[in-house]
Amino acid sequence: MKSLSLFGAALVAAFTCTSVEAAAPMVKTQPGYHRMMLGDFEITALSDGTIAFPADQLLTNTTPAKVARALADNYLRSPLEVSVNAFLVNTGFKLVLIDAGAGELFGPTLGKLPASLRAAGYSPEQVDEIYITHMHADHVGGLMAGDRLVFPNAVVRADRHDADYWLSPENLEKAPADAKGLFQGAQASLDPYVKAGKFMPFDGDTELLPGIKAIASYGHTPGHCIYVIESRGQKLVLWGDLMHVAAVQFGAPATTHKGDTDSKAAAAQRQKAYADAAKNGYLVAGAHLSFPGIGRLRTEGEGYEWIPLNYAVPR
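The structure assignment produced for this chain is given below.
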């Protein structure tokens, strides 16, 4: 009996030791891309990461109490993790990136777009054109890595109104101290492309490629625009920063953002975009909607309900 007891103890010890040694370390990363087809176009949502967003401090035309209540209704609280998304469109003859993430300008939780792009099967060198919704740092910072062009073969395009505003040394000089960083980030990100002859601004509503149009939606910035992607009767509208916090702004579309250049115009553009998307049922995507940030809208009382894209394997 004694030998059996010793044998049993040895088995227990061996099993315990093996279990500890076999434990896998936690990975603590997220997949950085999501792919879908839109007619003949391949759309890939790319994650640049997430960032803590103090919604109760940055949302305007509301109150901190209302923001807290709306977040709580969605099991959230401020600060909440907000996605920073970009979108890759493969038309079959051009590879187009819409927005470029934050790069090195927003800290260690962002700047993941190049890794997401590679995980999705593409390299930065393959990108032909980059369309910028607006020149805030979390949309253009990823154009550069130090003094190196991240997308050396790409032409960058954005609305002229944003370029004239953010790339102006005079505007930087006269900007208040707490806003100078916005101008500096835009200029550090875009000026190398300008000097290389790789920046081509457009003016307002413009067809950039067959199936891709820029639509002026000025307000959040002087030249903020959205992009309409269409193929074989299917439509996706990329909203950029028409909105920032889904849990608040779908239910209360008049809620604005402290970073808006013109809050009244930004709110009007959001209301227009919401109403049209809900009426016509096409897909929309947002830079700060929870990744992958693609879905549809339908009216819900005085606001709207967000219906995320149904997951499907592209065919």
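Interim note for the steering committee: The first helix runs from residue 2 to 22. The mean pLDDT is 93.
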